[in-house]
Every structure is written in structure tokens, then in C-alpha cells.
Specification:
This protein folds into three domains: about 5-205, Tandem AAA-ATPase domain (Rossmann fold), CATH 3.40.50; about 215-420 and about 435-520, 3-Layer(aba) Sandwich (Rossmann fold), CATH 3.40.50.300; about 535-594, no CATH class. The chain has an eight-stranded mixed beta sheet, with helices on both faces. A seven-stranded parallel beta sheet has the order 3-4-2-5-6-1-10. It starts with a helix and ends with a helix. By secondary structure, it is an alpha/beta fold. The chain has 19 helices and 21 strands.
């Protein structure tokens, strides 16, 4: 039976809200097969919760099940699931603990977390088998977060009548690690012989974008030069986008994210400008942004920077804060511009007015990337766009390109080198032992706009894309009426870049009374010459990069090739560590190429 026929066969809807076409088709497929296990992969923001509750509603009304149990990753999502179920006439208890034995009377079931199931799997097994039960495993990949969690889920729900598994993106596991109730196919990723989840129904970003279910997203990449002191006591400088080795790239990335540098405040200022544009001209008067930090210490420092740069305190949302759920709800319903968080809103949390994300974390797994970006792509109506600000480093640009690939209907995304460590998470640095010297120290980092990535094309803001221009139909597709095209977005960010740099430098130097924890920079006459040299070199690097972009656009030559040719013509180290004299010579050489 075709998708249209399946949708018609469902007959009148029993939900309190109209179902989207994909949800109707997925329900039709489920009812045709009536399976014990069913895995749905639907892009973040597509409406997995509504689909799951619509299915639960039908099974309950036909008395094929008498209870619904939802398992989700966090306590906040328990409340979110319970509210969504209540809106559809299903009463699910979000407060049932392991200390309470039976399911409370007057409810159709309850919402729990994977951690609670792992705490008392046999208790949850008893609840799931007392009557015919539908178990909904939200973001089921969490059942693979630890061996004990996977075993507990299997023990608790192995004998349940029905199981519905949900995820926002396909996931991999090692050949010897299988998440319960999920079917797999051989993946062969990078020759590792792993397994890929095999969904019974898939609804991807490409389809959701065509259906206006999600917002189109552009990625605004920011490069910059980082300086740090390594374990040997040597001062190293490198550009985020020109680092030669993975190790150097990671250290440059780590330095850029350090709250003491200027990369973070510069990007936050650009993010704030984008929010202002969306509010004043983009048809989103309540537009908001999310700053995603690696850990709670960084989150607190970033919150201070947001206050300093924007003049307004952000909502700080930390996972161990007992008021975290209330803060998310307050931010969702209020008018605050920015929330700073760690992983609290990276998955499943629904904040529809959030349309801008600043990626200030070293996490870089494909799964985490898709889930985090998913927080800003949920569409509320037509003509909305999402913007993600991120470091211009290869692992993140590769992930952004792979996400864009799904909706790229004219041109292939740029080819990038494989990153063997793409799926690994950075571990937080170990604190030095008391009295020991630090093994690594971030010194400073600046920031500059690199490009906007959209549909495989890097728009530099120089008036011409860095790669082949878009065809007319692509421009129509990306040029949402009333909003900026990706090229116009790049032009706006590029024009504002120098102004933001001056503003941030002045704010950074001025400091304040210390209540915000911002650094006050003192003048040291003996350091003036070195300071001028560093600032002159930084400005020359920016100029060299702008000229490289123009040469690349004019000659249709990749930027990396132009950089290589430049180093051959004017020998010396990479621009990130080149002297002022070398940078001046390279600037003059580039001018002759225009």
C-alpha cells in the first residue's frame, strides 16, 4: 500500500491535533504490521512525541494495551512528555518514583528515566507486565550509554507487550554492543565492522525541510588565531581553520573556547546581532539563542560574558540545578534573549523560539551534533530560519556539511578529509596536582568571520561564494521571502565583523568593578611593543585571509590551494605563526593576484 493510501486508510483522527503527513504514514505502517518492536527515526523537531502519543492513544482506545510507560533521558523530559500526553487526553504520571510500588490509580501509565529503570529494573518489569503495556523508549540510544543501562532496559521490558523506540538520528554501535529491541545492519564505518541501527520508519531532515516542518539552517563559521603554552613551556600559535595536524587543531579549538580570550565574546556579539535581526526584520519578535558550553565552569563564565557583551543577564541552565526544569520553562515562555547551558537542552527539550545556537563546546559526535542543532530547527510557521555559530574546525564543518547533504539537491557538499576521531568526545582536562605546574595553558585567541555554509556552498561575504555559485532554483529555495539568503547573511556578518572586534576589544580592556568576574587588563609599558606587534600581526592575518577568499572566488580555486600557493611564493611558516614581515609580503603577493 502506498503512503497516500495508508494515510487514507487511517480514517478519522482521534488525536486532539491534526497529524502531519509523515505521522499518518508511519501510523499506517505500524498498523499494517502490528509489530512487537518498532523503531522510528525522525529528525529533531519533526514531532516524534506527537506520533508516539497518537499511537498510544489508538492502542489504548482499542484496548490492545492497557498501560503506557515512557522512558526518557532526563527529569525535565518527564514533565514535557506528561504535558504533551495530557493535551491528547492521556494521563501519564511524571512523578512516580522507585519507592512507590504500583502505578497510581486514575492514570494510563507513567514517565520515567533510564537512570530510574537501571536503579530497579525488576520493579519496572513488574509494572510493565501487570497488564498489556506499550513501552515508549525515547532517544533509545541512551540504552547504550552504559552496559548496566542496556541490561536494565532489557530486563525491565523484555516481556512487555509492545515497544516503540524513538531516535532523532541513526546511530552506530560496536559489533559487540547492541541496544535492546533495535534491529541492526552491517555498517562497515571506516572498516571497523560496526553496526548501524535499522529503522522501521525514517523521516529525515530533507523531507522535513520540504514539508516546512523544520527551519532551514545555515552554519556561520568563525576562525581566529589561538596562542597557548604547551607542556614544554613553548608558546604556540595556530589558526582554527589552518591548523596542520589534528593535535594542533584541537589545542587551537580548546584555546578559542577559553573564556579569557576574545573568540567567545566576539562570537556571542555576532550571535546577539543575529537575534536582533530576527526580532526586528526576520518576523520572529521573540527569537532567542542558546550558548552550548562543554562544562558547568565554562557555562558560568560564558554567562558573565553574555551579560558584559549584551548588557543583559542570560538564563543559566545547569543539569545539577534542581530548578533547571523551571528555568527552561521560564526561558521558553519568557522574553530573555539568550540561555547558556551544558547538555541540558541538547536533546529533546522543546524551546521553539530558539533560532540561534552558539557552539562553544568541544563535543563533536555526529549524534550529539544532530541533537543539539535540532534544538533550533523546530518550525512554528513559514519563513523562519536557524543559524548556528561554530568554530571553523574540520570536525564540525564536516558534520555541518553532512547535515546539509541531505537537503542539497543541486550541488554536492565539499569534500573533506576523514577524521578518524570524529566520534570521540573530548575529555575535560585533568587538573594539575597541588603545587605542580600546569601542563598546558591557554593564552589568548581572537576571532574573525570565515564563511556561512549552506547547501555545500561557503559564502564568504565578499560578494561571491567561495565555491560555484548557486543556480536560480537554489536561490529560490534558500532565499526565504522576507529573510536573508545565506550569501546576504554572510555579507552582513562579514561587514559587522570588524566593528564587533573593536567593540569587544574595548569592552575586554575596560573591564568593570569585578562583580561580573570580567578581567581588568592593566597597561604595562614594557609590554607595549610586544602588544602592538601581536595586534599588527593579527590584523595582517585577517587581511591575508580576506584576500585569499577574494582570490579563491575570482579564480574558482579552493582556499586551501591558494594558501599553499602563497606559502610557495612567500616561504615561511603558516600564517598563524608567521612574522609581520612575512605576512606583509604575502599580502602584497595576494594583491598582485587580483
Amino acid at each position: 500500500m502506498g503512503s497516500a493510501a495508508r494515510a487514507e486508510a487511517l480514517g478519522p483522527q482521534t488525536t486532539s491535533r491534526p497529524l502531519r503527513a509523515w505521522q499518518q504514514v508511519a501510523l499506517g505502517k505500524y498498523e499494517e504490521e502490528s509489530p512487537k518492536d518498532f523503531l522510528v527515526t525522525a529528525t529533531p523537531g519533526a514531532g516524534k512525541t506527537t506520533f508516539a502519543l497518537a499511537l498510544a492513544q489508538r492502542l489504548l482506545s482499542r484496548r490492545e494495551v492497557a498501560r503506557v510507560i515512557v522512558v526518557c533521558p532526563t527529569d525535565h523530559l518527564r514533565l514535557q512528555w506528561a504535558d504533551a500526553a495530557d493535551a491528547m487526553g492521556i494521563v501519564l504520571d511524571p512523578g512516580l518514583t522507585n519507592a512507590v510500588g504500583p502505578v497510581r490509580a486514575g492514570t494510563s501509565g507513567y514517565v520515567t528515566t533510564y537512570a530510574q529503570v537501571a536503579g530497579k529494573p525488576m520493579l519496572h518489569a513488574a509494572r510493565a507486565t501487570a497488564v498489556k503495556t506499550l513501552v515508549i523508549l525515547d532517544e533509545v540510544h541512551h540504552a547504550g550509554d552504559g552496559l548496566s543501562w542496556g541490561e536494565a532496559v532489557e530486563e525491565a521490558y523484555g516481556r512487555a507487550a509492545r515497544r516503540l523506540c524513538l531516535t532523532g538520528t541513526p546511530f552506530r554501535t560496536k559489533a559487540d554492543e547492541r541496544i535492546p529491541f533495535v534491529k541492526y545492519v552491517e555498517d562497515g564505518f571506516e572498516g571497523q565492522g560496526g553496526l548501524m541501527s535499522a529503522a522501521d520508519f525514517t523521516y529525515g531532515y530533507k523531507e522535513a525541510l520540504a514539508d516546512n516542518v523544520v527551519r532551514p539552517v545555515v552554519f556561520a563559521a568563525y576562525t581566529g588565531t589561538s596562542r597557548w603554552r604547551n607542556s614544554a613551556g613553548e608558546v604556540v600559535a595556530a589558526s582554527l581553520s589552518e591548523a596542520g595536524t589534528r593535535s594542533v587543531e584541537m589545542q587551537a579549538w580548546r584555546t578559542a573556547l577559553d573564556p579569557k580570550g576574545q573568540w567567545v565574546p566576539h562570537v556571542i556579539a555576532a550571535m546577539d546581532d543575529r537575534i536582533t535581526h530576527l526580532r526586528e526584520e526576520g518576523g520572529m519578535p521573540d527569537a532567542a539563542g542558546l550558548v552550548l558550553a562543554s562544562d558547568q565552569d565554562d557555562a558560568r563564565e560564558y554567562a558573565k560574558i553574555v551579560r558584559r557583551v549584551t548588557g543583559k543577564a542570560p538564563e543559566l541552565i545547569l543539569s545539577d540545578d534542581p530548578k533547571a526544569s523551571k528555568k527552561i520553562e521560564k526561558f521558553n515562555l519568557g522574553g530573555a534573549r539568550i540561555a547558556v547551558c551544558v547538555r541540558m537542552v541538547s536533546e529533546g527539550v522543546d524551546v521553539p523560539r530558539a533560532a540561534v545556537l552558539a557552539w562553544m563546546t568541544s563535543y563533536r559526535t555526529p549524534l550529539f551534533f544532530a541533537q543539539a542543532v535540532g534544538r533550533v530547527v523546530r518550525a512554528r510557521g513559514p519563513h523562519e530560519t536557524a543559524t548556528v555559530f561554530l568554530p571553523a574546525v574540520r570536525p564540525l564543518l564536516s558534520l555541518a556539511a553532512s547535515m546539509e547533504e541531505q537537503r542539497n539537491h543541486v550541488m554536492p557538499p565539499p569534500k573533506t578529509a576523514a577524521d578518524d576521531d570524529l566520534e570521540a568526545l573530548d575529555l575535560p582536562p585533568r587538573e594539575p596536582r597541588e603545587g605542580a605546574l600546569p601542563q598546558w595553558e591557554a593564552l589568548e585567541a581572537d576571532a574573525r568571520f570565515a564563511h556561512v555554509l549552506s547547501s555545500g556552498t561557503a559564502h564568504t561575504g565578499e560578494g561571491t561564494p567561495a565555491t560555484t555559485p548557486l543556480e536560480a532554483e537554489d536561490e529560490d529555495f534558500l532565499g526565504i521571502p522576507g529573510l536573508l539568503t545565506p550569501a546576504q547573511t554572510a555579507e552582513l556578518l562579514a561587514k559587522r565583523d570588524d566593528e564587533l572586534r573593536v567593540r569587544i576589544a574595548a569592552t575586554h580592556r575596560r573591564g568593570d568593578d569585578g562583580d561580573d568576574g570580567f578581567m581588568v587588563v592593566e597597561d604595562h609599558p614594557e609590554e607595549d611593543e610586544a602588544g602592538r606587534s601581536w595586534r599588527d600581526a593579527a590584523e595582517l592575518r585577517r587581511e591575508v585571509n580576506r584576500l585569499v577568499n577574494r582570490v579563491s572566488a575570482k579564480t574558482s580555486t579552493p582556499q586551501a590551494v591558494v594558501h599553499t600557493q602563497l606559502r610557495q611564493s612567500v616561504p615561511g611558516p603558516p600564517s598563524a605563526s608567521a612574522s609581520v614581515d612575512v605576512l606583509r609580503a604575502r599580502r602584497e603577493r595576494l594583491r598582485t593576484m587580483l
